[in-house]
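User: Can you recover a sequence for this backbone? Please restate the input before giving your answer.

Assistant: Of course. Working from this structure:
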């Protein structure tokens, strides 16, 4: 049995996938949102910490709550998207480690310190990458962005202060007719070293 993903999957998840700016009028189902999460949660995080927290903004009322936090350049495409996910990270992720990393009950003490936010943001961002790949794997296009006011999003969607927003990602079926030409990617020798 081959453990390598085939070319079709690589095209869907990487080579032909694009950041979308306009959306077709096709719904995103609850089943698709659950499938995204069920895939992304399987990706590795430090000590199985899983700090990512997601709010799926789909209803017109929820979109209006998000609107004041969006930058002008991101407003139209975000409001048009069938769903926009707010990807945040739990600043007290370590409280769940006795359950999530059960074979070592000391794990909570490793992170319940002044480095907790660094770990939460790092691992939440890693999970954000898994989120994008999972969305593509279940047949959706993505429009990830950071053009929004984090403080406004946090006040509106995470008012207890425990979760902080990282980035937002619109989901749906993109309109390829309005895509910009693909920008250059750095070649291996410019971005990498083998020592």
């Amino acid at each position: 049995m081959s453990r390598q993903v085939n070319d079709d999957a690589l095209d869907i998840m990487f080579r032909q996938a694009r950041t979308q700016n306009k959306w077709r009028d096709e719904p995103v189902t609850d089943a698709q949102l659950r499938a995204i999460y069920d895939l992304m949660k399987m990706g590795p995080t430090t000590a199985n910490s899983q700090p990512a927290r997601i709010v799926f903004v789909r209803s017109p009322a929820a979109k209006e709550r998000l609107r004041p936090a969006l930058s002008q350049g991101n407003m139209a495409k975000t409001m048009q998207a069938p769903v926009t996910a707010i990807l945040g990270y739990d600043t007290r992720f370590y409280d769940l480690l006795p359950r999530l990393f059960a074979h070592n009950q000391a794990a909570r003490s490793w992170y319940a310190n002044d480095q907790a936010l660094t770990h939460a943001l790092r691992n939440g961002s890693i999970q954000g990458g898994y989120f994008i790949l999972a969305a593509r794997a279940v047949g959706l296009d993505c429009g990830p962005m950071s053009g929004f006011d984090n403080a406004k999003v946090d006040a509106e969607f995470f008012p207890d202060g425990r979760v902080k927003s990282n980035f937002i990602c619109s989901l749906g079926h993109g309109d390829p007719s309005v895509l910009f030409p693909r920008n250059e990617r750095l070649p291996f020798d410019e971005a990498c070293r083998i020592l």
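That completes the design. Strands lie at 52-57, 83-90, 141-145, 163-172.
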